[in-house]
Design goal:
The structure holds two protein chains of two kinds. By secondary structure, chain A is of the alpha/beta class. Chain A is built from seven helices and ten strands. In chain B, helix 2 packs antiparallel against helix 9 and helix 11 packs antiparallel against helix 12. The chains are: A alpha/beta, B alpha+beta. At the A-B interface, helix 2 and helix 3 of A face helix 1, helix 10, helix 11 and helix 13 of B.
């Protein structure tokens, strides 16, 4: 469970201050499937970065599983990212010279897991995302959808609490995007907390809870019941 | 992630940019190769100079006569060196610190025997010469003091002359040979001190009582006088003491015996070598500095190029320290590799120098160690700024970087 209280974020200093988040209160339970929507410049990416420990709030508190995060310390944030969050990006972000297995295993390198175990875990997850026959391929030998699957496997490899995806289908055609979203749905059904940042209604429609942000404030938070 | 993982990432990154890496390393390679080659040559030169100084006359020091013009007549340039005798040799050998005295004179002569003819260098010696110079008598006997005192016309020939003038089966001992149309009796054969490779063109040498040389050739009985010190450390002091003793014994007024002061010479040699080392050191320092700046430059480019990779690594949990370490190891690997290649080139250079010049240049393990650690240190110094820059990148901005 994560609980954000009165989160504010201001970029810049003095007269150049740009407030981005104006006090966000948000609680996300384990196992939820959340879509964060909003127009560009609304602050949704900043919120995602804060949730994913890539950034820290200027003020406000963030509790993860009941424990308050003592923010602003690089090493602490890096450890939290490594242990609790799996990122999926719009542009996939692969290590271009490493094959699928190595790409998937890369977070484990920083977690201090032995090479044998890293490879085993990576293979297992590649099978899970449907790339059992593409394990030794380099990123440039994979299609966009396949790359995103590798990225999802990589996000899962540390067995994180939260799966954070920033426009995960933004660079994919609608057909492939649909398959990726089905994969997220499946992972959510298996118990993962999935948070997707998007500006597309169709993508948000996969989620069970849709949060809308505008000008740094939550303007809408509704649960979808099907 | 341990150091080994970082090292492998560093190696693959260097391998992926082969040409760039080699060009970057070039400064370090040239710097290290230059330093090590020059140090190797320097050490070789020093060794050769010291060898030349001490080798043939190990622990030996010359004693020579020096004329001092009388005070009332400084223009007086006519002088005669005092005669030295076997008695003086005896006196000198009793001076503390003196192990042996070598008193010799020289002659040349045409030797004829068994229809063979050859010009021979003759050294006139006393009985003390054999132990002092470690002369190995392989046939017959050495010279006795009695040979000198009795003006016995006996000679010892060296193994080269034996081969030239006598058949293998022939016993040269007791044979009479002809030297400048005078007969002499061969009493012994001694092992030539010449190294094997110089022997084939030589006709050989012979030893004779120095009194006989003095009588037959008309020169002085003792032309060269050396003392051999029992302790190589005190060679200069022993020499000085011997010279003073000899001056006193001879009761000289317008002259004295003196020795070369090796200490001065050694000091001069050391000053020269340290000066040379300093000069080379500065040149090498500049070269390595330029090389280091090149490394820093390319590492900065590399950090910029790999901004997104750094962002991604941070997103998946790499700490600032891990990123810093990764880039630092990369720059250390780069410079150490350059250093190793430089050492390799220096080794080849030293072999070539040794092959084609009289100097034996040797790359010592110590200098190799210094070379490698020095290039690694350059990697640390010049890698620190780029690595620090990489580690401080914000993951969000790094991922957004186009």
């Amino acid at each position: 469970m994560m609980k954000l209280s009165n989160i504010r974020k201001v970029y810049g200093k003095g007269s150049l201050e740009v407030p981005v988040l104006h006090g966000i209160d948000l609680t996300i339970e384990d196992g939820e499937f959340v879509a964060i929507m909003g127009p560009s410049g609304s602050g949704k990416s900043t919120l995602m970065n804060i949730i994913g420990f890539l950034d820290y709030p200027s003020s406000g508190t963030y509790e993860l599983n009941g424990e308050q995060i003592a923010a602003a310390k690089e090493t602490t944030l890096a450890k939290l990212r490594n242990e609790h969050v799996g990122f999926v990006f719009q542009q996939f972000f692969m290590f271009p010279r490493d094959n699928a297995i190595k790409n998937v295993a890369s977070p484990l390198v920083y977690a201090g897991v032995s090479k044998r175990e890293r490879t085993a875990r990576a293979k297992e997850l590649l099978v899970k995302v449907g790339l059992g026959d593409r394990m030794k391929h380099l990123p440039n030998q994979l299609s966009g959808g396949q790359k995103q699957r590798v990225a999802i496997a990589r996000a899962l490899v540390n067995n994180p609490t939260i799966l954070l995806a920033d426009e995960p289908t933004g660079a994919l055609d609608s057909n492939t995007g649909e398959q990726i979203m089905k994969l997220f749905t499946q992972l959510n059904e298996e118990g993962k907390t999935v948070i997707i940042v998007t500006h597309e209604e169709e993508i948000a429609a996969y989620a069970k809870r849709i949060i809308t942000i505008k000008d740094g404030l939550i303007t809408d938070d509704r649960r979808v019941t099907t | 992630m341990n150091i080994w993982d970082s090292f492998k990432i560093a190696l693959s990154s260097i391998w992926n940019h082969k040409i760039r890496s080699i060009l970057t390393m070039l400064g370090i390679i040239i710097g290290v190769a230059a330093v090590i080659t020059i140090v190797a040559i320097g050490q070789g030169t020093k060794k050769q100079m010291t060898d030349e100084l001490f080798s043939t006359d190990k622990n030996a020091i010359d004693i020579y006569y020096e004329y001092i013009p009388p005070e009332d007549d400084p223009e007086m340039m006519f002088w005669e060196e005092p005669e030295l005798t076997s008695e003086d040799v005896q006196t000198l050998s009793k001076v503390p610190g003196v192990k042996a005295v070598v008193a010799t004179n020289q002659g040349w002569g045409m030797m004829t025997h068994n229809d063979e003819q050859g010009e021979m260098q003759i050294t006139g010696v006393g009985a003390e010469f054999f132990p002092a110079r470690d002369i190995q008598v392989v046939e017959g006997r050495s010279l006795y003091a009695a040979d000198n005192d009795g003006l016995n016309r006996v000679v010892l020939i060296d193994t080269i002359a034996r081969e030239k003038f006598f058949k293998e089966s022939e016993n040269p001992i007791g044979e009479i040979i002809n030297l400048n149309d005078n007969p002499y009796k061969v009493v012994g054969v001694y092992e030539s001190p010449l190294p094997e490779q110089f022997r084939n063109k030589e006709t050989g040498e012979m030893l004779m009582p120095r009194s006989v040389i003095s009588m037959m050739f008309g020169n002085r009985e003792i032309e060269q006088l050396k003392v051999i010190a029992s302790d190589p450390e005190n060679i200069s002091e022993t020499g000085r003491r011997a010279a003073e003793t000899l001056t006193a014994v001879k009761g000289l007024e317008n002259g004295k015996y003196s020795t070369n002061d090796f200490e001065d010479y050694e000091r001069e040699l050391n000053t020269m070598i340290s000066l040379l080392t300093l000069l080379i050191g500065s040149i090498a320092g500049i070269s390595l500095l330029v090389g280091g700046i090149g490394v820093m430059n390319i590492m900065l480019v590399s950090v910029t190029e790999r901004t997104r990779e750094i962002g991604l690594r941070k997103a998946i949990g790499a700490t600032r320290r891990k990123i810093l370490l990764q880039f630092l190891i990369e720059s250390i690997t780069l410079t150490s590799l350059g250093g190793l290649i430089g050492i390799g080139l220096a080794a080849i250079g030293s072999i070539l120098v040794s092959e084609f010049s009289p100097i034996t240049a040797t790359v010592s393990p110590l200098i190799v160690l210094i070379g490698v650690s020095f290039s690694a240190i350059i990697g640390i110094i010049f890698g620190l700024l780029p690595a620090n820059k990489a580690s401080k990148l914000s993951p969000i901005e790094a991922l957004r970087y186009e």
